[in-house]
Amino acid sequence: MDSRRFAIVLGGLALAGFAVRVAYGLIANVPSGFGDDVWFSSVANGLAHGRGFSDPFHSLSGGKLVFGTLGDPVPTAFHPPLFPALLTIPSLVGLDSYTAHQIVGCVLGAMVVPVVGLLGRRIADNRAGIAAAAIAAAFLPMVSRDALLMSESLYGLLIALSLLAALRLREQPTTGRALALGALIGMAALTRSEAILLVVLLAAPIAYRIERGRRLRAIALVCAAVLTVCLPWCVRNSLEFDQPTQITTGDGSVIAGSNLASTYMGPDIGAWDFQGLYRTPAGRHVDPNESVQSDRWRDEGIAYARHHASRLPAVVAARIGRTWELFPVSPIERARLGSDAYKHVRALEYPEQLMLWAVVALAIVGAVGLRRRRRALWPFLVLLALVTLVSALTHGDPRYRHAADVALVVLAGAGVTFAARRGGPQPPRIAST
């Protein structure tokens, strides 16, 4: 298959992926409640109307935090800024409805499809690229997050581009490629803050594999680009909240809500308890300063974990199991959780579970094939390690797995081509480890 035909096929699969995502979004019962999806959409509209990055659910009236936005804006950094900032663009031209913002997420999710195809071709061949793109177009775990106005739609694209940039840097360590990798990691961190760990987990090992005289320069360029992208937001946060504040103020509530009696035992072990979060001493009297409130919640959560350390092995196992959809053990319970807690389409929850494990099986075949052929495997495994680590330290949520799902889809595409070629001549080597 020549490059032109390959590009046409990828374009067609991207359009198919967009259609699947739009269909899923229209079927789903959203918006519902005050979840992250509504937060992203509302913050974007607030930006478009001059309220800045402000809490979309609360405002200040008489110096007190009140529900609604009739009072003065309350500065927020509860989530990283890049996704709502992107949604502001359609809001500025009147496309400010929840559905319009959903379409943006569907476009971003569909853009992952050709990038995954390029990754598959780079580590294996054209067939692997087409297979990976086809899987990405219809892979329900990714489709649901892209269609339901989650920041993972943008995050998945940035993760895929970061993988592509990392492989390109490994092949030819130029200044431009190092800066591109750093910029992409920085933008990914401004979408989901744990992506900042990719500097250590992905960029540093890539630099280490470069010839000795150029290693330090490569990692310095990556770090400089990350800092350039992320520092302005961190400075803004520190000035708004009158104390040093990094990318997000949401970490405190994540830690506190993950370390409660309800999440250390019983049916919700390993999960996050929103209602329980507001029953703690810090939660009953919320400080309007998000950074201060985050510190209070963080201290509570760490103290609880320290005092109940004997439960941590079971809790961590449950957290990881929830992220990888191994817990709850019952498929019926997982389907109920997906539809009730994550707003997924209930009828598609069982196919989603089957798809996940089919892709995992193909990804294992692909990983073994790449290992035997001494091709680039570890950058993809890094993403699996990242989401597992984040889950172990916080709580279990299939959303956390999105970066790993991108890697699994690429490896599954390679698995398809290796399985098809079993017993035949091995394809030429493309990228070394």
Question: What is shown here, in short?
Answer:
With 433 residues, the chain is mainly alpha-helical.
Q: Give me the side-by-side strand order of the main sheet.
A: 2-1-3
Gyration radius, to the nearest Å? 22 Å
Bin the helical content: 55-70%
Overall 3D shape: globular
Number of helices: 20
Class by SSE composition: mainly alpha
Secondary-structure element sequence? Answer: HHEEEHHHHHHHHHHHHHHHHHH
Mean pLDDT: 95
Largest sheet: 3 strands, antiparallel
Tell me the span between the first and last alpha carbons. Answer: 26 Å
Low-confidence stretches: 427-433
Number of extended strands:
3
Strand content: under 5%
Describe the structure.
It is built from 20 helices and three strands. It is 67% helix and 4% strand. With 433 residues, it is mainly alpha-helical. The longest helix has 30 residues, at 212-241. A three-stranded antiparallel β-sheet has the order 2-1-3. The two termini are 26 Å apart. Residues 427-433 have low confidence and may be disordered. The radius of gyration is 22 Å and the shape is globular. A hairpin with a 2-residue loop joins strand 1 and strand 2. The chain has helices spanning 3-27, 36-48, 82-92, 98-123, 126-138, 140-147, 152-171, 175-189, 198-208, 212-241, 251-258, 261-264, 274-277, 281-284, 290-307, 312-323, 331-340, 349-372, 378-393, 402-420, and strands spanning 54-61, 64-67, 72-75.
